């Protein structure tokens, strides 16, 4: 019988309520907060546990945890056409990268 770590489930529920940003300003604030090494490592540990079938699936899961569907529709890589830029969020990109490795 497989044991489920209830503490981990609770941690993901907490993460989900803290994250899933719906506006770009909050996402930028989170990006800035990730400059703190201790906070970054804590987030990396929590987010890397999401897992996935492959690299693409893991990346998609992390992105959907961090950014709401409504906000991601208002974003693109460079921020052209009056959209928000994803490439400016370097700490978030780094977090995703190290979490799926």
Structure commentary:
InterPro entries: DUF4806 (IPR032071). Residues 23-97 form the DUF4806 domain. This is DUF4806 domain-containing protein. With 101 residues, this protein is mainly alpha-helical. It has one domain. It contains 6 helices and 2 strands, in the order αααααββα. It has helices spanning 6-18, 24-33, 37-48, 55-66, 69-72, 90-100, and strands at 75-76, 84-85. Strands 1-2 form a two-stranded parallel sheet. 12% of the residues are buried.
Summarize the structure.
By secondary structure, the chain is mainly alpha-helical. It contains six helices and two strands. The protein has helices spanning 6-18, 24-33, 37-48, 55-66, 69-72, 90-100; strands at 75-76, 84-85.
